[in-house]
Every structure is written in C-alpha cells, then in structure tokens.
C-alpha cells in the first residue's frame, strides 16, 4: 500500500456541516519515509503554497458574501439602485502572501457614480493588520533596510510590499496614530491608585538632518512601582516586571509631559501617591517632573547618582587633581554638598590651566543648581531605597540608542523619528502595544 495525503478546502452550511457546498484540493502528495531533516516536513515552499491557496479560497468566498450584501445598495447621490459593472482586479497583501482578487464593481446608470471596487477602497487598506503590525515592530527595532531583508527571508521571496520605503511609511503612520490615540485615552480612570511610584526622566542626543544643527534631544520617561522590581536569580541585576514609558523628540514640550502623566496614571498615580523622581539634572528633565507634582500626594526629587558619578568620571584632569576630585565624590555620596563645594573651590585655586578651571567650575555650577536634589545616597542604599536610575537606564538605551544611534551615518528628522519612538515606548510598556496596535493600524493614514 502506498500512502498519500491531500489537503481539502471545504465550504459548508453551518446548519448542515456534514454536507459540503464546495470542495477544492489545495495540496496532494505521497507520504514517504524521511531520510534527513530536509525531507521530513513538507518544506517552506509548499507551506507557503498551502497558505497561499487557503487564503485565495477564503478571500474569494468573502468577496462573494460582500457582493451579495451590496446588491441592494443605492446610489448616494440619486438613490437609484446600483448595477453590476464587471469586476475589478485588486491586490491584497498578508503576512506571507500576496493575492490578486476580483472585486465586484457597481455603478449608477443615472449619474455615473461608481462604488469603491478595490480592497484598499473597501477596507481602507490593501494590507492585512498583522502585516502592518510586523512591519511597524521591525521598523521600530531595526533599520528599514534590515527590516526589508528580514521579511524577505521569512517570506521566502522578494515582495515589493515589504520594501524599505513601505516599511518606513507604515511605521510612521502607525506611530502617528499612537500619538492621537494617547490624546483620547480615558481608561486611566479605572486604574487602582498605588502608594508609591518611581519616575526616571532622561534625554539622549541624536544626529539630525536639520540645517545648521548637529543634534536634537529625545526625551524619555520611565515610571514603575517599587513592587515591580524583581531580582534575577541568574544575574545580580534586578529587572522590572511592569513599567510604562513615554518618549518624544517633538519640539513641543507638552507632548512628553502629557505622555509622562498618562504613563504615571496607568501605573496608579493618585492624590495619595508618593513619587520618587530621579533625573540627570537637566532643566528640561526637572520640568517634566514638576508637571507630575500637582497630581501626586508628595514627591522626593533626587539627582540621579548614576549620572552624578558619571559626570565626575568624565571630567578629564591631571592625575593629582583627578585624585582630589574623586575625593569630592565621597562627600556627595553622603549628601554633604557644602563640603563638596568647598573642596571643588579649593581645586579651582590649585588648578593653573584655564581649561581645567573651566571644567571644575562647570561641575560646581551643576552641583549648585541641583543642590536641593542631592540626598544622602549612602543612607538610601542602606535603607533599601532607590537612589539611581540604573534599572530604567537600560530602557532609555533600548528606547533611543539601539535604534537611533546604531550606525554613525544615521540622521533623523523630528517628523520621522517621533512616530518610531511612540511604537518603541508602547512596546516597552506592559500591555500597551498589545492593547493599541489594532486601533493604531485602523487609524493610520
């Protein structure tokens, strides 16, 4: 006996499922003994062919149902009944396959009005939602050309719908739709208020295409509950189980402020919530923090130790001066700002090079400007309280740097980058992308 198999596509009436209305054989082959891993499965080309034929049959049946539903339609202008007027070839693109389908055309014999007769006109888009989702995710995490190559590899063929320009357009459209969705969100009122939240605000400079400007600053914020901090058993580094992010490179400061407030509300911000805010000391970062203050019960603003320590490390001085500067770090770690500033003034007197004096003075100004935000970091560490943004720093790295600074020649416009940041922020916020991608795709241009 020689075994064979066939895959049948069948149409049936739901009230009588045993009786087939239509049957089509879409795959038929012999069952042979496999000799290696290459001939064990039906193979990628046959898998794609299987998907292609199943989809072709499903789409054709759906178009028949659509045509039947439209047969009683009337002209919106003269209210005469629309008549069939041949069929229109139209393309539809799914995740792995492209389909050339025939859509019924309808025309008014009175005024000449013709109803929409392509998939794009009828449904608003000739691409499936899942394909747009994948294109958006890839476009937000890889360069557009890398995304094109990845989609080509998994589709097994070069498809024009996955070219880098198309991926760029879809990513920007979906990201822009996310901005508009965020403006309309109202479900935040249902979030249960929490006792404490931690807010990290930071910025990153990105090379820009703007004339006469070397870079622009992208702002990010990450907010989470202390209960979301979990220890990784395989690694000494902790991680977050839940967080909400906001990001923006718009020159309108209100966008990142509104995004941060929305992220905080989703994490449970309320009138009795205590917020611990950590920033690198920049004024625009503290402005975002200040916008949160009226919405919470109390706030502790802290100059982030990670950035403070890095500033000290990055000041280039002769060895003896550098050793004395590092001793200033001892006072700052304990929150003794007055003694730290006194030591820095002594360093200014000892330094003879104008460049070295300028560097020390700039650091003095930085400490003075953030004096009320410098705390006893040693004490907070002993008490198990947050004092640094190292947990959120990886999020900032992944939100901005991994996509926007991956190649030296990469340049961005605000209009091109801002939508991508919205997708990346949604993907890094717990449940956000899963909840929003469908609505974003339906509202994308």
Descriptive keywords:
445 residues, 46% helix, five-stranded mixed beta sheet, 11 strands, 3 domains, alpha+beta, elongated, two-stranded antiparallel sheet, single chain
Mean of residue pLDDT values: 90
Number of helix segments? 15
Helix percent reads: 40-55%
- Judged by helices, strands and strand pairing, the structural class is alpha+beta
Categorize the overall geometry.
elongated
- H and E string: EEHEEHHHHEEEEEHEHEHHHHHHHH
| Major sheet attributes | 5 strands, mixed
Please tell me how large the radius of gyration is: 30 Å
Stretches where pLDDT is under 50 for at least 5 consecutive residues are none
Indicate the proportion of strand residues. Answer: 15-25%
Structure summary, number of beta strands: 11
Strand order of the largest sheet: 9-6-5-10-11
Number of domains: 3
Give the termini distance in whole angstroms: 58 Å
Describe it:
The protein is an alpha+beta fold and 445 residues long. It folds into three domains: 4-126, no CATH class; 162-304 and 412-445, no CATH class; 305-388. The protein is built from 15 helices and eleven strands. It has helices at residues 44-70, 119-123, 129-141, 144-155, 164-184, 253-266, 283-292, 305-313, 319-333, 337-350, 354-369, 377-382, 390-404, 414-428, 432-443; strands at residues 4-13, 16-30, 83-93, 98-107, 196-207, 215-224, 229-231, 238-240, 244-248, 274-279, 298-303. The protein has a five-stranded mixed sheet, sandwiched between helices. It has a two-stranded antiparallel sheet with strand order 1-2. A hairpin with a 2-residue loop joins strand 1 (4-13) and strand 2 (16-30). Helix 6 crosses helix 7 (283-292), helix 9 (319-333) runs antiparallel to helix 10 and helix 14 (414-428) crosses helix 15. It starts with a strand and ends with a helix. The model has no long low-confidence stretch (mean pLDDT 90).
């Amino acid at each position: 006996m020689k075994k064979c198999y066939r895959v049948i596509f069948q149409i049936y009436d739901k009230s009588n499922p045993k009786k087939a209305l239509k049957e089509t054989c879409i795959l038929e082959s012999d069952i042979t003994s496999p000799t290696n891993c290459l001939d064990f499965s039906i193979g990628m080309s046959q898998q794609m062919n299987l998907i292609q034929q199943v989809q072709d049959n499903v789409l054709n049946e759906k178009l028949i149902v659509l045509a039947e539903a439209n047969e009683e339609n009337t002209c919106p202008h003269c209210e005469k009944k629309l008549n069939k007027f041949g069929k229109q070839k139209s393309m539809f693109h799914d995740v792995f396959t492209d389909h050339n389908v025939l859509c019924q055309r309808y025309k008014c014999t009175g005024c000449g009005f013709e109803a929409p007769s392509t998939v794009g006109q009828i449904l608003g888009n000739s691409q499936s939602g899942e394909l747009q989702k994948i294109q958006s995710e890839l476009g937000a995490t890889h360069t557009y050309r890398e995304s094109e190559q990845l989609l080509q590899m998994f589709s097994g063929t070069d498809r024009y719908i996955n070219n880098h320009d198309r991926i760029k357009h879809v990513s920007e459209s979906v990201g822009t739709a996310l901005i508009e969705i965020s403006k309309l969100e109202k479900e935040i009122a249902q979030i249960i208020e929490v006792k404490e939240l931690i807010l990290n605000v930071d910025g990153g400079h990105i090379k820009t295409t703007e004339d006469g400007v070397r870079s622009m600053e992208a702002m990010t914020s990450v907010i989470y509950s202390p209960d979301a901090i979990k220890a990784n058993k395989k690694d000494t580094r902790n991680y977050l189980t839940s967080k909400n992010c906001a990001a923006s490179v718009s020159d309108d400061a209100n966008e990142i402020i509104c995004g941060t407030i929305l992220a905080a509300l989703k994490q449970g911000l309320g009138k009795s919530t205590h917020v611990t805010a950590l920033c690198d000391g920049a004024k625009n970062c503290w402005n975002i923090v200040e916008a949160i203050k009226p919405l919470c019960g109390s706030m502790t603003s802290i100059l982030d130790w990670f950035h403070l320590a890095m500033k000290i490390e990055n000041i280039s001085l002769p060895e003896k001066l550098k050793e004395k500067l590092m001793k200033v770090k001892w006072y700052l770690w304990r929150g003794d700002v007055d003694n730290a500033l006194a030591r820095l003034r002594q360093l200014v007197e000892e330094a003879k090079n104008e460049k070295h004096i300028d560097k020390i003075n700039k650091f003095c100004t930085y400490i003075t400007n953030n004096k009320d935000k410098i705390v006893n970091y040693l004490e907070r560490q002993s008490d198990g309280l947050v004092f640094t943004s190292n947990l959120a720093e990886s999020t900032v790295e992944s939100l901005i740097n991994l996509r926007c600074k991956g190649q030296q020649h990469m340049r961005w416009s605000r209009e091109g980058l801002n939508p991508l940041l919205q997708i990346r922020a949604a993907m890094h916020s717990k449940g956000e992308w899963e909840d929003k991608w469908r609505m974003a795709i339906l509202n994308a241009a």
